[in-house]
Amino acid sequence: MSAVKFIGKLRLLFSNAKPYLLMIGLQFGMAGNYIFGKDVLNHGMSRFVFIVYRNSMATIALAPFAFFLERKSRPKMTLPVFLQILFLGFLEPVFNQSFTYLGMKYTSASFTSTIVNAVPSITFLIAVIVRLERLKLREIRSQAKVIGTLVTFGGALLMAIYKGPAFNLFHSGSTTPHENGSPSSHSHQTAGAIYILMGCVALSSFYILQSITVKGYPAELSLATLICLAGAAESTAVALVAERHSRAWAVGWDYRLYAPFYTGVVSSGLAYYVQGLVMKIRGPVFATAFNPLCMIVVAALGSFVLGEQLHLGSIIGGVVIALGLYSVVWGKAKDYSDTKLSSIDAGDTKSLPITATDDSKIDIISENSEKHKLEGGRNRVAFVKV
């Protein structure tokens, strides 16, 4: 019995730790998105071509799983859902990735990953505008979300207008051209922050529309595959106009291959699956709370791999954005917990499924079983329905 209890405790411990382990691992994987993206831009690869290859590889990676796992549950495609998928493919794979990589080109990987933490606050603001989010200023949770949104924007604005002295975590050599503290470098930082924020607005709009689309097309893997496919087709049309030279489309056994492969498979394919799995277990607020970890990992890897510098303005702005993010996350967590309690209260009259066993009941049944054997079957074990 002790061995059974020990195995049960291990299973419970792993079940409780599973969402944390998945999200921590995902943040390390997502950090590679910024590192590979910045590296491929530093090598001169066109961001338009990079986006095409990234979404194409994401489609190839997701398609087999979507086809086999959701073959029976996939709903029929309708015209409204099809149009929404086309728009989703434009918002995230085309608009968001294009402006985010453009802003990263002018700044750094750590700078980009820091400002991207503003996405939950921007999503909340857009949800209020389109009336998908209720806002009651008399409630503490609504006040926390409003204050967190304002603090997040303040941190992003601080990073855009203030640079400050530079710090080297792992390198002490020469700096990169865009980090030399010159006036042109400062203007590049401001422009880069604006481009990244534009990408954040597109990504937040993507989340809003995705939450609507998934209700009419409840097949997450198939929907993600179709979005990547639409993004690959639309970004191809943009890239054919922007990059007319065949040399820009060349692929070799170097950064032009491994960067799109990694970002497509990990940052798009694997991220969709892990985020969906964790959201089903702990909700979307739980997944959002781990975003600052990616910012820290990118800052360390950016300095070690790319030789990037950290500036005082980025450090202060990152802390301010993280505080604002957790204020919004706290408010959303209260909403999520109240909604969950309401759904439980609404189902109080329903029969409760047996999801766990009581050790005392097991012992009683075991004793009755022994008596049953000793008395030659005269005693019977009765099962009582609760």
TrEMBL record:
InterPro entries: EamA_dom (IPR000620), EmrE-like (IPR037185), WAT1-related (IPR030184). It is a multi-pass membrane protein. It is found in: Membrane. Keywords: Membrane, Transmembrane, Transmembrane helix. The chain crosses the membrane at residues 20-36, 48-69, 81-99, 111-132, 144-162, 192-209, 221-242, 257-274, 286-306, 312-331. Its main location: membrane. Residues 19-159, 191-329 form the EamA domain. GO terms for cellular component: membrane. One of its GO terms (molecular function) is transmembrane transporter activity. The keyword Membrane applies. Belongs to the drug/metabolite transporter (DMT) superfamily. Plant drug/metabolite exporter (P-DME) (TC 2.A.7.4) family. This is WAT1-related protein. It comes from Cajanus cajan (Pigeon pea).
